[in-house]
Amino acid sequence: MLKVCQRYEIYYNEKMLILTSTELLEDFRNEENTLIMPYSGQPKTLFQYLDTLESSDRFEKVILHSQDPIVIFKDLKKLLIRINAAGGVIENNEGKFLLIFRRSFWDLPKGKLDKDELFENAALRECEEETGLKNLQLKYKICHTYHFFRDKNNTRALKKTKWYFMRITDDQVLIPQLEEDIELAEWIDPLEAILLKPIYKNILLVLNQLISIKSK
Questions:
Q1: Phi then psi dihedrals of residue 64, to 5 deg
Q2: I want to staple 98 with a disulfide (CB 3.0 to 4.6 A). Which of 24, 83, 90, 116 is the partner?
């Protein structure tokens, strides 16, 4: 999820639900495969737009607008189970980023928070568990994202993931966590990482955000 000038981006696989201010609609007028609709103020109508993203290939983006998109976002959160997760971008001494290959997509290590666990602690734990690395140094938060999905009970959930920049200062053997369906873990140059395919759009967002931060 990004909030820039009252704009929220919520991912569903390679698609997006965008909640934005009506005054910013001109940013989207010329986009293809995009459904643009005013928000009616009735929370249950949000289900039809989630259905559209899940079951139709007609639209890659659904954009809902109102004078106050924060209201749309709050209504959406009331309808879905909420899950917190954390993950990270790990950098080695050569300036390369660690990416994993899981379920046919390039990804970053991440996972759900345990009960009463802090986001920072969860990020370190998940990154270590999924890559086999130890003694990671958490430096700072990069950003956070949102996406929705269906859980094992087929109930829609909204996951908030906080992403952190981490470093490792020694050489260690990478051990992908096979029980989490991780096939590969590789150190990749940042500019090559953003060109990897297939890769989730929210992962690209995190990588580009970090590259932007580090270039300042």
A1: -110, 135
A2: 90
The token pair at 168 is 């490792």
Determine the 3-state secondary structure of 29 from DSSP. Answer: coil
The last residue of one of the domains, among 79, 97, 129, is 79
Single pTM value for the model: 0.92
Determine the Cα–Cα distance for residues 110 and 125; give it in Å rounded to an integer: 9
The residues that bridge with 18 in the sheet, in sequence order, are 9, 63
DSSP 70-124: HHHHHHHHHHSEEEEEEEEEEE-TTSPEEEEEETTEEE--EEEPPTT--HHHHHH
Q: Cα–chain-centroid distance for residue 98?
A: 16
pLDDT the model gives residue 211: 97
Give the C-alpha separation, 99 to 72, whole Å: 34
pLDDT reported for residue 1: 43
Per-residue pLDDT of 7-54, as tens digits, reads 899 999 889 999 999 988 888 878 889 999 999 999 999 999 999 999
Q: Are 189 and 96 in contact (CB under 8 A)?
A: yes
Binning pLDDT at 50, 70 and 90, where does residue 2 land?
very low
Number of domains in the chain: 2
Q: Of all helices (H) and strands (E), which one includes residue 42?
A: none
User: Could you say which DSSP state residue 198 is in?
Assistant: S
Residues 49 and 96 in one domain: no
